[in-house]
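We were asked to recover a plausible sequence for a given structure. The inputs and outputs are reproduced exactly as logged, with field labels preserved.

PROBLEM: sequence recovery
POSITIONS: 464
GIVEN STRUCTURE:
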């Protein structure tokens, strides 16, 4: 592969090498020191896998172009990989084949888990999404069979385009491709040989760049490296569930862990059309998926959605005024109590739906029931992360409910000083040492707010 890339104009390969690392497996090793910001690798456009390159292929391209409606980009890339791999004695594909030969022969994405391994995280959104994904991938393969493989048996022999082959190629695309937004909201998905050997580190800032004018891909050093260090890139701030679904690994104690809460309302609900309009005005969809995170377990948008969902006719005007002035707060004690009660109960039910409850999972992991790095261990990490987030969300809903019952002021948004309203962009906020929830821009605001905050502080602390 190196010879092909160098011949095609790749830059930087002589300063980098492939090596095995204990934590991440195969990755890229620096052969000399690099300074942060230095360009360390460029892979030229003519070696990169894109949908455009697949369409330009003299044999595959016309067949792909004949498919209506067009195939998805990930299907095009997956077919391109399988097609190149299938052209065993065709010298026109020999160079790209050197890259295909270096792709891992197996993947550890959750889609490949046994039922027993996946059951460890039953109740999590990963479990649900993986189950859906398996169905979707199966359906997509059947469509390819009828739309392409059966019609062009000479190009797509089924022993090289089996369901297993399709799943392998699709997983290669998910776990190794990069997405870039280019002009006019368009985006490009690509897979770049050698650059796709770079592993992810949470602290590696965005350091891969696509040049739309040349089509080249470059990697910059995200920090200083010494010779022998592993070079990393950043795949994004991704929760373990998504990491396992699309990349096949997890990061223990991942700060990006989340639970994607889906909020929806029956179209038969009273005042549905008016509420639909209010959600839209408030920047929400009638089916809203809102990530709950450890940092912000109950985002304001969840409360906003539910306040609208539970409005009665006499409260429509108040809500419209709030949206117009962007001054969101509770509509009434009754509305607020209803939504918080509902949240507390539904999150409790979600937690009750996990196959292995949090406390038991923590004991199992501490006792080494799941061997670190195994599929079941990875599923356990996802379940752990999601349940921790849900627990924090329930605690916050309960505390808020208690404060409504006590007649306290509602919680201020978590990115604002509770006293003066300065937000986290304007000042560094620190949390109250006792309840660890309400935040201030400085000591002065905290002291000035003490009297007002005392009762809520007590109920928040008690629910922790
Ligand atoms: C773009 S490839 C990187 C190269 C890959 N390690 C290889 O040998 O081909 C992405 C895959 O690398 C692995 N990976 C990347 N970052 C990782 C990390 N921080 N910890 C564990 N595995 C990682 C995962 O298997 C992932 O699907």
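RECOVERED SEQUENCE:
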């Amino acid at each position: 592969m190196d010879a092909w890339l160098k011949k095609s104009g790749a830059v930087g390969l002589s300063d980098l090498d492939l090596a095995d690392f204990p934590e991440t497996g195969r990755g890229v090793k620096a052969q000399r020191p690099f300074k942060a910001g230095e360009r360390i690798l460029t892979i030229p456009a003519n070696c990169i896998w894109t949908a455009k390159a697949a369409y330009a292929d003299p044999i595959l391209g016309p067949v792909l172009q004949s498919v209506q409606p067009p195939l998805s980009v990930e299907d095009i890339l997956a077919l391109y990989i399988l097609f190149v791999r299938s052209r065993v004695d065709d010298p026109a594909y020999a160079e790209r084949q050197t890259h295909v030969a270096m792709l891992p022969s197996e993947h550890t994405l959750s889609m490949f888990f046994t039922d027993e391994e996946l059951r460890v995280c039953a109740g999590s959104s990963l479990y649900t999404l993986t189950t859906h994904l398996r169905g979707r991938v199966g359906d997509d393969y059947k469509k390819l069979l009828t739309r392409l493989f059966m019609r062009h048996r000479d190009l797509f022999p089924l022993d090289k385009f089996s369901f297993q082959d399709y799943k392998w190629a699709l997983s290669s695309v998910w776990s190794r491709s990069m997405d870039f937004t280019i002009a006019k909201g368009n985006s490009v998905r690509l897979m770049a040989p050698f650059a796709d050997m770079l592993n992810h580190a949470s602290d590696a800032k965005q350091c891969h760049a696509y040049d739309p004018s040349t089509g080249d891909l470059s990697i910059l050093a995200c920090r200083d490296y010494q010779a022998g260090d592993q070079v990393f890139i950043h795949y994004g701030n991704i929760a373990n569930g998504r990491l396992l679904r699309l990349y096949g690994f997890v990061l223990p104690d991942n700060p990006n862990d989340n639970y994607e809460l889906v909020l929806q309302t029956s179209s038969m609900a009273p005042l549905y059309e008016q509420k639909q309009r209010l959600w839209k005005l408030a920047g929400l969809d009638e089916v809203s998926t809102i990530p709950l995170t450890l940092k912000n377990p109950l985002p304001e948008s969840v409360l906003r959605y539910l306040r609208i969902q539970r409005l009665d006719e006499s409260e429509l005007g108040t809500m419209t005024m709030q949206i117009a002035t962007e001054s969101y707060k509770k509509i009434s004690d009754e509305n607020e109590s209803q939504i918080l009660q509902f949240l507390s109960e539904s999150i409790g039910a979600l937690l009750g739906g996990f196959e292995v409850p949090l406390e038991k999972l923590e004991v199992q992991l501490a006792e080494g029931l799941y061997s670190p790095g195994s599929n079941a261990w990875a599923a356990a990490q996802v379940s752990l992360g999601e349940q921790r987030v849900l627990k924090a969300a329930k605690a916050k809903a309960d505390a808020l409910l208690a404060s409504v019952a006590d007649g306290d002021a509602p919680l201020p948004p978590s990115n604002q000083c509770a006293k003066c309203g300065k937000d986290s962009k304007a000042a560094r906020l620190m949390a109250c040492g006792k309840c660890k929830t309400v935040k201030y821009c400085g000591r002065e605001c905290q002291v000035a707010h003490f009297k007002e905050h005392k009762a809520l502080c007590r109920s928040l602390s008690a629910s922790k």
